[in-house]
Amino acid sequence: MLPQVVIIGRPNVGKSTLFNRLVGKKLALVDDQPGVTRDRRIGDVDLLGLRFKIVDTAGWEDEDAETLPGRMRAQTEAALVGAAAAMFVIDSRAGLTPLDEEIGRWLQRSSVPVILIANKAEGKAGDSGIFEAYSLGLGEPVGLSAEHGEGMADLFDALLPII
Ligand code: GDP
Ligand code: MG
């Protein structure tokens, strides 16, 4: 069985764009388990020869801000069960938000290895956001542009020792 890697992060950081980039839209399939995992998408990835399953967590995009953290936490914890690694995505253009910091604390308490991804890092607009991401205490962030496909070799280097 291929190791499973879950993509975690608040809405709008580029999780689904990264999922599509890694999988290619044609291979994406929908996992319609009921409950908190109802909107998970699972796909097969071959990243420079490294093969794994990737899970895109979603389903809270339209939630109101009050209930968002609780629902996200339940879904994040469900997604982490059995995962070999988590990719925690932040938006390096927007900088860290309180919700990013909260998710970072959940992930620090989890036993699943975390790869911190500073997305939207194309050009120079993400530089300060990448630097800020160190403060999450989750190691060196991988600067990435899911939309433009930049940084994929660095993602490979970060994943290789883990999965
Ligand atoms: P999700 O809610 O975390 O799944 O985020 P989405 O994948 O839906 O992306 C949210 C928005 O960010 C969309 O408008 C994307 O086009 C944009 N986006 C995603 N990746 C990048 C990136 O690498 N660079 C830039 N500039 N925008 C991106
Ligand atoms: Mg999404």
TrEMBL record:
Keywords: GTP-binding, Nucleotide-binding, Repeat, Ribosome biogenesis. GTP 1 binds at residues 9-16, 56-60, 119-122. One of its GO terms (biological process) is ribosome biogenesis. One of its GO terms (molecular function) is GTP binding. Residues 3-163 form the EngA-type G domain. The keyword tRNA processing does not apply. Belongs to the TRAFAC class TrmE-Era-EngA-EngB-Septin-like GTPase superfamily. EngA (Der) GTPase family. Associates with the 50S ribosomal subunit. GTPase that plays an essential role in the late steps of ribosome biogenesis. This is GTPase Der.
